# Entry
Amino acid sequence: MKILLVDDDADNLNLLQEILKPKNYQIFAVQSGNDAFSKTKELEPDLILLDIVMPGISGFEVCQQIKNDPHIKNIPIIFVSACNDIEDMTEGFRLGGVDYITKPFRKEEVLARVHTHLQLKLLIEEKTKLIEKLDQNSRTDSLTGLSNRRDLLEKLNYEAKRFERSKNPFSIILADIDNFKAINDTYGHGGGDYVLVELANLLARNSRDQDIVSRWGGEEILILLPETDASGAKYLAEKYRKLIESHNFHFDGNQISVTMSFGVNMVFSKNDSNDFIEAVIKRADNCLYEAKKNGKNQVVYLHEVEI
Ligand SMILES: [Mg+2]
# Structure
């Protein structure tokens, strides 16, 4: 692990380096507050031992700079000072330091405090990664890897709020695989799952970066198109329809013919309804229903009428 030592006194730096040497840490040292900040940005060390009293920029000021920078603010800082002053200690903790070492250095104490804070940092990183992974899993459909309903609803709510402020329209596409029951009946659930995964990959590969493609339900896909008007949404829905129609779905030596029906709804006015989101989806659902009724494998769209 990387440790950055900051002290204006070369003797102190040498002493700390001697103490830490047997532990196989990667040690870096600088002698001024100015260098401390730039070196921290460059190295992103796992721990900083930071002298408080230095000419020019003090250790406290360096700490503040680091805590104000989102990329490095979580690097733990142990303050180092000659004086065992309670006010200094309090100020150090207030500014975000995690611990305190006083001069003259006691070898065992330095080693123990450094070890403790490096271990803590590792634990926090592991925990953060775990939380991110759990969060990611809770937003992902396990079969297709697409966003799930929960994730889509959250982003749709966000988009609705953005829309209230900016008044730029957004659109949604609700799509449903045609005759999915027949696919399952003919090729078994393995065949049905294959079609879902293949189709999800096809849509994900061909969608724009800003769009959210989600598995809304069994064989239903909902695509959120931020800041997209009716003509853009219609164009995309038609593009997806053709892509799917012409794609080769091969399962177990069979070629499966797959098509989808699409309902498209552009939102450009917010009515008084408490269930704005629900109403937006309902309208797309009505369009999808029309598409199915009119013979499937087609796009039906509607844009809201301003009230
Ligand atoms: Mg000093």
